[in-house]
Amino acid sequence: MTFCFTGVRSFPKLWKSNSYLGLCPGHSYMSLFPKDCYGIRNQHKWFSLKTASPQNTKATNLPIAKARYRRKGNESCNKQVSPESSHLFAAGAAKKRAQMNPQSKDHALPPVKNIIQLPTKPLNSEEWDKLQEDFKGKANFEDWIISQMAHYNSSVDVAKSLLAWVAAKNNGIVGYNLLVKYLYLCVFHKQTSEVFDIYEIMKARYKSLESGGTSLLIRGLIHSDRWREALLLLKDIKKVMTPSKKNYNDCIQGALLHQDVNTAWNLYQELLCQDLIPMMETLKAFFDFGKGIKDDQYSNKLLDILLYLRNNQLYPGESFAQSIKTWFESVPGEQWKGRFTTIQRSGQCLGCGKTIESIHLSPEEYEYLKGKIMRDVIDGGDQYKKTTPQELKRFKNFVKYCPPFDIVIDGLNVAKMFPKARESQVGSKFQEVRNHVLFIFMSSSAEDSTWIRLLNVVSQLAKQNLQVLVLGRKHMLTPCARWRKDEMEKVQKQASCFFADNISEDDPFLLYATLHSGSHCKFITKDLMRDHKACLPDAKTQRLFFKWQQGHQLAIINRLPGSKITFQHILSYDTVVQTTGDSWHIPYDEDLVERTENVSLLVGANGIP
């Protein structure tokens, strides 16, 4: 969605700020998408903002445009989606990838098979004794029962009766594991007085706490008058390790809850300087706190957050987008208005009529990025751990005497896109390419019939007068079940071939061939080049790399046996937060909804039509 806001007096830094400016020296990019994303059914949601002109009465009472969507899990709904709905770089694609490859959550407790029924009310000593006798598991009873209670968020009173029973049996001593899990329940149920008690016990008994227990104490203290003690615990963590973004989020939330804005912003800057990506709820908290506040300095910091989202290709969730909209519209003396809108395939916003930024780099930007990648990734990266300078030089000379390519294909990734079953001959639908294709092959463990699947892709592209270059490894020249001689010969007849050493890294070759061929050249791979993006020295270059990647990385969206190979349409516009000074367009994730339209939040000036 795009959020569109408009205002009578626009903020000075809307158009003066460097759009590539990072918020902290040395702050790094956001690492994204760890898994296959070609099947993601996700759409660009946009939130657009404009400031309403006093003469424009229509802009004072704007309706929220309803986006067409379907609820997840609705089996009866139409499964057809628009071409952009599964786009590789759709707003929300990062969220989908994170769901497919979830990060470990703080204090997440694995489910344990129930052997006995958990008590629902506090038990006395005799009842606990009886329950222990009925327990037939191999695990320690106390550890098992407290883990079950934590997993199912049992009543604090029930857990407290367990600790009293354990203490009575052990001369008043309760083990650390039991204390921490009891603390978890107290924090979950917001039993602040119990958190205090456990905190005092732990301080008296242990000289230091492990990070899990400290994190729970921080979370339990921030809602109380003793919230500043959470900051001391944060310092304790910093003595031995970098605090988590959740630790910072809890402390920032506590500071804002208790009106200590300076401390909250200082913690935020500290978080960025640690190269941590803030939680969306952290950023949302700043916008929620700023509602109705007339403070230019605070407003400018919130605009910096929006630029941070842009520079790191981050997308707020729906509730965060609502907070952004509410904040803009609440600024005293301003007349910003926001609406949810749709971005057409042409890049035009239906809310304000403006055209979203083009995905294409200018010639100057392209040459700048090409030079940076050649120096910092191709020549200056860590690829020589697997690729020798001699081999890279050999490849450069090889490319030098080939015609420019139009498409570079990561062969191993393409092979893995297809089902394992041997496929029949398939057709191809390919748009917006020119005349040459580089096919990159770097696999030592491909599935049987790999070459048949890849040969289908190469053949269909070659039929369109595309010259294909297949980059492989030398062991592929040795006939075997995976790399059949006759199929290899067919590939070589339709493509120039370069075979690298078996241990070589393929991405530097892919990037070099694509960039060397010119700005028209596209590439196909599931690899999102995170490591190579990390080699780039600054936020500006990383931002340009991602923009170039969006405009040049193709995805195969139909790869079923017997069906046509269809390539995904490349969007003509950039899918990041953007501003023209008198308007903002903010792509975001719609909660619990899979997109079937390209919508956004719009915020802008001079009224929204």
TrEMBL record:
<keyword id="KW-0540">Nuclease</keyword>
<keyword id="KW-0496">Mitochondrion</keyword>
<keyword id="KW-0809">Transit peptide</keyword>
<keyword id="KW-0378">Hydrolase</keyword>
<comment type="similarity">
    <text>Belongs to the PPR family. P subfamily.</text>
</comment>
<dbReference type="InterPro" id="IPR031595">
    <property type="entry name" value="PRORP_C"/>
</dbReference>
<dbReference type="GO" id="GO:0001682">
    <property type="term" value="P:tRNA 5'-leader removal"/>
</dbReference>
<dbReference type="GO" id="GO:0046872">
    <property type="term" value="F:metal ion binding"/>
</dbReference>
<feature type="domain" description="PRORP">
    <location>
        <begin position="449"/>
        <end position="597"/>
    </location>
</feature>
<keyword id="KW-0819">tRNA processing</keyword>
<dbReference type="InterPro" id="IPR011990">
    <property type="entry name" value="TPR-like_helical_dom_sf"/>
</dbReference>
<dbReference type="GO" id="GO:0097745">
    <property type="term" value="P:mitochondrial tRNA 5'-end processing"/>
</dbReference>
<dbReference type="GO" id="GO:0004526">
    <property type="term" value="F:ribonuclease P activity"/>
</dbReference>
<keyword id="KW-0862">Zinc</keyword>
<keyword id="KW-0460">Magnesium</keyword>
<dbReference type="Pfam" id="PF16953">
    <property type="entry name" value="PRORP"/>
</dbReference>
<protein>
    <recommendedName>
        <fullName>Mitochondrial ribonuclease P catalytic subunit</fullName>
        <ecNumber>3.1.26.5</ecNumber>
    </recommendedName>
</protein>
<keyword id="KW-0479">Metal-binding</keyword>
<feature type="domain" description="PRORP">
    <location>
        <begin position="343"/>
        <end position="433"/>
    </location>
</feature>
<dbReference type="GO" id="GO:0030678">
    <property type="term" value="C:mitochondrial ribonuclease P complex"/>
</dbReference>
<dbReference type="InterPro" id="IPR033495">
    <property type="entry name" value="MRPP3_PIN_dom"/>
</dbReference>
